[in-house]
């Protein structure tokens, strides 16, 4: 089974092939965990999101038909996981807004990439990135740090693909202007 690519495995998973699902998981879980940990430092939450993501992938694999525009099965899985992570953050935020009596209030850990940028002392790049609008930073994170395509970024952020491309262009122009 090792000669099959992830798309072929996913098609087999869609037909109920558990061995194909095991192989798909073995191939994708390590990098998925790394990508999720870039966004969240809570190992328990990452584990929960991974479990939810693979369960969703198992259930939806039959509807996966591939992407003629160059997206991959791994990109499809990342989109599922990223949405699950956002949902988990929202659930946590709702529960953390009103702490129960006697319960300690937990601070939310910053994303790993934010810590890296914060660690650049008064760097021009960090300052320029900090001045970007949040929607421009989100597109840059998805495409540059996470390596997603415009189509995958569109699915992840829930905006049209043309909007993603426009935001990337605007972000580059603003960064170039700020750094020159």
The tally of strands reads: 0
Please tell me the total number of domains.
2
| CATH superfamily heading of the largest domain | RNA polymerase sigma factor, region 2, helix turn helix motif
Percentage of residues in DSSP E strands: under 5%
Radius of gyration: 18 Å
According to CATH, the fold-level topology of the largest domain is Rna Polymerase Sigma Factor, Chain: A
Q: What is the CATH architecture annotation of the largest domain? A: Orthogonal Bundle
- Continuous helix count: 9
Provide a descriptive summary of the structure in words:
It is a single chain. This protein is mainly α and 180 residues long. It folds into two domains: 100 residues, Rna Polymerase Sigma Factor, Chain: A, CATH 1.10.1740.10; 71 residues, Arc Repressor Mutant, subunit A, CATH 1.10.10.10. The protein has nine helices and no strands. α4 packs parallel to α8. The longest helix is centred in the middle third of the chain and has 25 residues. The chain is globular, with a radius of gyration of 18 Å. The termini are far apart. About 3% of the residues have low confidence.
Write the SSE topology.
Blueprint: H1 6-14, H2 18-39, H3 43-60, H4 73-97, H5 112-118, H6 124-131, H7 134-145, H8 150-157, H9 161-179
Helix pairs in contact: 1-2, 2-3, 3-4, 4-8, 6-9, 7-8, 7-9, 8-9
